[in-house]
TrEMBL record:
Entry annotated with the keyword Transmembrane helix: no
GO cellular component: cytosol
Protein's name in the database: adenosine deaminase
Hydrolase listed as a keyword: yes
GO BP annotation list: adenosine catabolic process; hypoxanthine salvage; inosine biosynthetic process
TM annotation in the entry: none
Amino acid sequence: MTTTTDDYFMAGGGPNITALPKVSLHDHLDGGLRPQTIVELADAVGLELPETDSDALGQWFEEQSNSGSLVEYLKTFDITTGVMQTSDGLVRVAREFVQDLADDGVIYGEIRWAPEQHLTRGLSLDETVEAVQEGIEAGIADVAAQGGSIRIGQLVSAMRHADRALEIAELAVRHRGNGVVGFDIAGPEAGFAPSRHRAAFDYLASKFFPATVHAGEADGLQSITSALIDGRALRLGHGVRLAEDIQVEREDDEGTYVTLGALSQWVKDREIVLETSPSSNLQTGAIEAWGDDILDHPFDLLYQLGFRVTVNTDNRLMSGTSLSRELAILSDAFGYDLVDLETFQLNAAAGAFLPLEDREDLADAISAGFEQA
């Protein structure tokens, strides 16, 4: 391996979170580059950077991402996608991405990215998918050579403000035997409802191909409703603003009393996975209706009410984070113990875009790892 991940521990001590087996469902390829890799790839393609020292560049990404606006947050991706326009660049980024996930204790990860954003230097859509898969397979081999094991799937995303969703959906299905496990729409949420891409989602449904949809991050309940109805979403990317459909009646020493709206009740009853990303949700203002601190995040409310919550990084570079760090942050904020952290991983395993038998095996591996902690 060429990189290491800091160890993180639960509040008040406890097991090493980094060593625990984990599942990552919401992690963007263009949001997880190593700063040094950006520096080297930018030099090779002649891309100007705001900082040429890797440490300073990493700090720049974090500072630029703390805007409180998803639109401003997304502007940092001009740089990362800028160095991912060649086959070699895509292979390297994907390979290192897998290495970094394994160093963080991830045993199954889904990497989402938008092929249509990587065509400026002559690659075709199919060539970009093939390059990323080549990098993924090289990364898996690197992990195996170090005595580890990791499984990775691609989530192919269409940009929701563009008009290529059907074409990208067809691309995803075309590569379902070459590492692609699901479909997503990403990019600016407000004003670009999933209903705009109904034809793509109809096509995916006809091919029995699963979709997760970014919803409930920069837009509210209408966006989530459209993700479920128009997008047939099996998971919600972030989904935190679903809490807008939960009315807190009162809180006292005996607990919190709430009333669920029809939408939130449906999501809970159907066990639709929420792909929350705590640090990112703070950076983009997704939880501003409740506050600007991790303690204000509706994650704990959703968890205590029985929603199928998962913990994710979204963009490790922009948030300066890892999955272990996100779990440690939540543990510190809400007093979670090992049982809670295991529940989050089992929720993620249940929502993974894998065959049922593979999800059961993944759950068994998680439980075995937590028992040894």
